[in-house]
Each structure stands twice: as structure tokens, then as C-alpha cells.
Write a structure and sequence with these properties.
Elements: H1 2-9, E1 15-16, E2 19-23, E3 26-30, E4 35-38, E5 41-46, E6 49-53, H2 59-62, E7 70-76, E8 85-89, E9 94-98, E10 107-109, E11 114-116
Antiparallel strand pairs: 1-7, 2-3, 3-4, 4-10, 5-6, 5-9, 7-8, 8-9, 10-11
């Protein structure tokens, strides 16, 4: 899934984050021609250290700091669960997504295609 996503996403990079919001449980990021949404767990890390995540009391305020940054790369979030994305941000941080339910744990709308995570489908984890 993430390899297919990379094929569509790389020509569009960087994706500038113009809107960022967290209304528990949903994280939403958006730009001029794209949008990402996830009701699953997520975290922001830098240099392998957790900065904040979905369970942080101030997460709703902290995600605003992502506005103005850009998504510059996407990789599988894990070697074991390769169907979830990790987005590299322009300031060196990573936004990691963790599917915690089988149906629509995240979606990314691009101008030419919409990607919807499906961690319970084995074909989506390759």
C-alpha cells in the first residue's frame, strides 16, 4: 500500500500543510490540493524521541505547529505493519500513523487518487 502511495505522492511533493486539526479521535491535515484524515493513533517524533501524540492532553493545540511545514516523504511506519504511513516533515520530524481498527483507519486524498488504509487486507501490507 505505501509503495503504491509513494508512486502517486512523490511527484506532488512537497505537500504544504495549510490546515492541521485534532478533534479527538480524528487528526486532519490538508493543503491546497490534498487532505489526510485518521481516527487512529498517531505520534510526532524527532530524532527518535516522542514530541507529542494523540493521547497528549494538549494535542489539539500542538498540531497547529504543523501548519506551514511540508510533507517531504512517506515510508512504511513499521517493518512489521507496512500498510501504515510515516510522513517525513520538512523540519525533520516524522508523523507516524498506527491503525488500531480494520475499517478506514486513515485516508489520503490526492488530486488523482484517494488512498484508504486497510490493515486487515493482506494485499495492502505489501
Amino acid at each position: 500500500m505505501i509503495e503504491s502511495l509513494k508512486v502517486e505522492l512523490v511527484p506532488l511533493l512537497p505537500l504544504k500543510i495549510q490546515h492541521a486539526a485534532f478533534t479527538d479521535p480524528t487528526l486532519t491535515l490538508a493543503g491546497e490540493t490534498w487532505a489526510f484524515s485518521s481516527p487512529s493513533a498517531w505520534r510526532v517524533i524527532k530524532d527518535d524521541v516522542l514530541e507529542f501524540g494523540w493521547s497528549d492532553v494538549e494535542a489539539s493545540d500542538m498540531v497547529w505547529d504543523l501548519c506551514g511545514l511540508s510533507i517531504v516523504a512517506v515510508e512504511p511506519q513499521s517493518l512489521r505493519m507496512t500498510g501504515d504511513p510515516a510522513f517525513r516533515l520538512s523540519d525533520g520530524r516524522w508523523l507516524e500513523i498506527f491503525s488500531d481498527h480494520a475499517v478506514d483507519p486513515w485516508s489520503l486524498q490526492l488530486p488523482s487518487m484517494t488512498f484508504v488504509g486497510s490493515p486487515s487486507d493482506p494485499s495492502q501490507t505489501t
